Amino acid sequence: MSILSKEKNGGTPAIQIEGVHKKFDDYIALNNLSLEVSRGEIFGFLGLNGAGKTTTIKMLLAMLKPTSGKLYMLGEKVDAGNYKLWDKVGYLEEATFYPDLTVVENLDIARRMQGVPDKDSVNRVIYKLGLEPHKQKKAKNLSLGNKQRLGLAKAMIHNPEILILDEPINGLDPAGVAEIRNMLYGLAKNFGVTVFISSHLLEELSKVSTRIGIIHNGHLVKEVAMDKLEQSLQKNLVVNGRDKHALKEVLEEHGYEFEETIDGYIKLTDDHAADSPERLAELLVKSNQPPTLLRVITEDLEGYFLRTIGMTRGNI
Ligand SMILES: Nc1ncnc2c1ncn2[C@@H]1O[C@H](COP(=O)(O)OP(=O)(O)OP(=O)(O)O)[C@@H](O)[C@H]1O
């Protein structure tokens, strides 16, 4: 591949954050944060409230300077004075609009505020976001999903290559989340747009992202591709029997480690027990303690998130 065509196809990553620290007086908000997002990815940036998501986004947008470390977008150093770069970046914090103006009118205002001279950019973004059937409707009369589309259209009026979204899905109902997913997938797949989207909800983020990075105490603690997430979820074997005391004795005798769950079942804490539940079933039957319940329980996404950041439900 020639250098030219490599560059055209996005030889450099869309976003690179290298060893960034951010201190507010003595408080360390970001602690050696590094991450990379490839072009065309939908990267979910997940963290509890206060983990450092907004601080990171403000740095990507050059609204804050890192105490140390480097940030690049599209191969260029992030710098408030680099207007060429800002032409290629869109940002959405919250979908706002003039309720009594139509979709076209709202977008034309956004176009002028962004300093985009080409009036056709309004129609182009309407097409990109599937707002054509609604373009003459007043913004206040749009469905929630189409209001989200209008918000995204405003952030994309200048045809950016990177779209940065700060918590746009928190509080949306499942239909709203599905709308956002379809829009973002379309933008990434059909137009090669890179999306960086933050949230504190893994459940929602997992539905729209192609990869997730988990930030905790200002540090990236885990990255996981969405198609690998299922494999990362912990699986536990849960058993119960008529004589729980005797059942526990059998487990102890055979070296199984376990704990009792809140609802009174016995959960095997050995990671591999869930791989072969039939072995345990056979043992219990042979020991005259046939199980009344034997089930593999897969951790839910919230459980995975909390385990990854070293917390359990109830202590956040
Ligand atoms: N200007 C500031 N001065 C002092 N501390 C700050 C400042 N901005 C952010 N912080 C602190 O840095 C930490 C990270 O904040 P940040 O807003 O990046 O978190 P977040 O992950 O975006 O959380 P949320 O989901 O609540 O927005 C928080 O403890 C916050 O109080």
From TrEMBL:
Q: Does the keyword Heme apply?
A: no
Keyword set includes Protein biosynthesis: no
The record's family statement is: Belongs to the ABC transporter superfamily.
Keywords recorded for this protein, A-Z: ATP-binding, Nucleotide-binding, Transport
Which residues are in the ABC transporter domain?
15-242
Residues forming coiled coils: none
Q: Which GO terms describe its molecular function?
A: ATP binding
Entry's InterPro entries? AAA+_ATPase, ABC_transporter-like_ATP-bd, ABC_transporter-like_CS, P-loop_NTPase
Source taxonomy: Bacteria, Bacillati, Bacillota, Bacilli, Bacillales
Q: Tell me which domain of life the UniProt entry assigns to the organism this sequence originates from.
A: Bacteria
Q: What protein name is recorded for this chain?
A: ABC-2 type transport system ATP-binding protein
Q: Which PROSITE patterns match?
A: ABC_TRANSPORTER_1, ABC_TRANSPORTER_2
